[in-house]
Design brief:
It is built from six helices and no strands. By secondary structure, it is an all-alpha fold.
Length: 205
C-alpha cells in the first residue's frame, strides 16, 4: 500500500482528537448517569456543558478550514466528520434530557447496556482519531464501532419487542420506545462518524 504525504498542520489533528475526547466524556457521563441514576439534573448539566464545548471545537475547525490554504484531507470530508461527531454529542444530550423530561424512575437493563455500548464506541472513536495523523492502526477501532452498532441494533429490537410483549402502561411503553430510539440514534451516529473517518483514511492511502 502506498501512502501519500499529508500536509502537516498538526492543529487539525489536535482538534479532531479534542472533538473525539469531548464526545467520549459526554458518552461516559451518560453511561455513569444511567448506571448510578442519581443527581440527574447535575449530570444532565454536565452533558449539556460538554455539548457546548463540542460546538466550540466545531467552530474552531470550521474557522481553520476557512483560513487554511492546504488541508490534510478534503475539506468536504473534514466538514462531514465534524458534523457526524456533533450528531453523536447532540444525541447523547437528547437522551440524557429525555430521561428527565419523561420522569423515568429507573433505567432498564437494556438502557444500561445501550449506554455502555455507546461509551465503548466513543473510546474506539478517540483511538481512531488519535491515529488519523499517522494513518496506521485505525481499522481495528473502526471495525469495533461497527460491531458495537450491530450489537446495539439487536439489543434495541429485543428491548422494544419486550415492551410490547409484556404490555403495561401504554404511556410507559411509549416513553421507553422513544428512549431506545434516542439511544440507538446516537449509536448509529457514532457509526456514521466512523464511516466518515474511513472515507478520509481510504482517500489518503
Amino acid at each position: 500500500m502506498t501512502f501519500r504525504l499529508l500536509p502537516k498542520d498538526v492543529r487539525f489533528f489536535e482538534l479532531f482528537v479534542a472533538d473525539g475526547e469531548n464526545l467520549k466524556m459526554a458518552a461516559d457521563r451518560l453511561h455513569e448517569m444511567v448506571k448510578a441514576y442519581d443527581r440527574l439534573d447535575e449530570r444532565v448539566a454536565e452533558i449539556q456543558a460538554l455539548e457546548k464545548r463540542g460546538d466550540e471545537i466545531d467552530v474552531e475547525i470550521s474557522q481553520k478550514l476557512e483560513d487554511a490554504f492546504i488541508t490534510p484531507f478534503d475539506r468536504e470530508d473534514i466538514h462531514e466528520l465534524t458534523v457526524r461527531l456533533d450528531d453523536v454529542v447532540d444525541g447523547i444530550q437528547a437522551t440524557a434530557e429525555t430521561f428527565v423530561i419523561y420522569d423515568i424512575d429507573q433505567p432498564t437493563e437494556e438502557a444500561r447496556q445501550l449506554a455502555r455500548i455507546l461509551a465503548e464506541q466513543a473510546g474506539h472513536m478517540v483511538q481512531a482519531l488519535r491515529k488519523l495523523d499517522g494513518l496506521k492502526g485505525l481499522e481495528p477501532h473502526l471495525e469495533q464501532i461497527h460491531d458495537l452498532e450491530h450489537q446495539a441494533d439487536a439489543l434495541s429490537r429485543s428491548a422494544v419487542a419486550r415492551l410490547f410483549r409484556e404490555g403495561g402502561d401504554p404511556i410507559n411503553v411509549i416513553k421507553w420506545r422513544d428512549l431506545y430510539r434516542e439511544m440507538e440514534n446516537s449509536i448509529d451516529a457514532a457509526e456514521d462518524a466512523a464511516e466518515a473517518i474511513e472515507r478520509m483514511y481510504h482517500k489518503a492511502t
